[in-house]
Design brief:
This protein is an alpha/beta fold. The chain is built from 8 helices and 10 strands. An 8-stranded parallel beta barrel has the order 1-2-3-4-7-8-9-10, surrounded by 6 helices. Strands 5-6 form a two-stranded antiparallel ribbon.
Length: about 300
């Protein structure tokens, strides 16, 4: 099981770069950031763009993978996103993973002046967004006219450093999203069942995650794909366990072990942010980063 971190883009780069450098020093497999225009309780504070932040991070790190958790169609278009991703993959020397999801109804959903899409509308757009982005990142020129997205002779030469393209980590829990993960993903991402966050138990969360994984297996079987080909990433902090796994090394190893048994191959933990939902003792966090992976082999 690999251990990764999520670094929110809330610091000016003169300070923020220290966290990305430190993440690599601690041996994290990957460092991700959220791709939002603003987010939840951080809406009225500093929040920087994901792609520029990852590009800067690529210049101060050497081997750690970088990516988004997650990008969505809420304010992205496949044509412009593909160009930015190809550029980022080049700057990083082929270290980028694109976490991608259908999006939600938060601030991003209306920032461009549109009405927030319904869950069905988000699913419809996502079902068109992902295959088109796949083509844009693998073909030199793409023309496609869809219900939501159009590409007209869109050029993406020379393409990604990673071949045939940079990997997709598809966030999904519903049937349509899981089918997209099965067909287009190199990894699947989940944060658990949001209905359990407030009043559920860790045991209920494990059962819900097991059900999600089983539905992913079924989606893979439908198209004849080996489900074992997909990495499985759990974005932590949104299950009923909340921040408890980061209270000690033993607590984290116990949490990670329970989820490794479900088939998860990667856990993503949030870099500590004082006085927030992601508050944690920095020293304990770094001890977990340094020592937990060896106990999870």
């Amino acid at each position: 099981m690999r251990l990764s971190t999520v670094i929110l883009p809330i610091h000016r780069w003169v300070e923020g770069q220290k966290n990305w450098r430190r993440a690599e020093e601690l041996g994290f497999h990957a460092a991700y950031t959220y791709d939002h225009l603003s987010w939840r309780t951080f809406r009225d504070g500093p929040w920087f763009g994901a792609i520029p932040t990852l590009t800067a991070a690529a210049t101060v790190t050497q081997s750690m993978r970088l990516g988004t958790l997650v990008t969505s169609p809420n304010f992205r278009h496949p044509v412009t996103l593909a160009k930015e991703l190809i550029s980022l993959d080049d700057v990083s020397g082929g270290r980028v993973t694109l976490g991608i999801g259908a999006g939600g109804n938060g601030f991003d959903a209306t920032a461009l002046g549109q009405e927030a899409w319904t869950p069905r509308e988000r699913a419809d757009r996502f079902a068109e967004f992902v295959p088109l982005l796949d083509r844009l990142l693998t073909e030199g020129a793409v023309s496609q006219r869809g219900a939501f997205y159009t590409a007209e002779e869109a050029r993406n030469i020379p393409g990604c450093v990673q071949r045939p393209r940079l990997p997709f980590a598809v966030a999904a829990t519903g049937p349509r999203g899981l089918r997209l993960a099965a067909r287009h993903g190199q990894a699947w991402v989940t944060a658990g069942d949001p209905k359990l966050y407030e009043t559920g138990t860790p045991e209920q969360s494990v059962a819900a995650l097991r059900g999600q994984a089983e539905r992913l297996d079924a989606a893979c079987a439908e198209i004849g794909r080996d489900a074992g080909e997909l990495d499985r990433i759990l974005l932590t902090g949104f299950t009923p366990d909340r921040g408890r796994p980061l209270e000690s090394l033993d607590a984290f190893v116990d949490f990670a072990g329970r989820h490794r048994e479900l088939g998860f191959t990667e856990l993503a933990v949030h870099w500590p942010i004082p006085e927030s939902d992601f508050a944690a003792d920095q020293a304990v966090f770094e001890k977990i980063a340094a020592e937990a992976p060896a106990q999870l082999r």
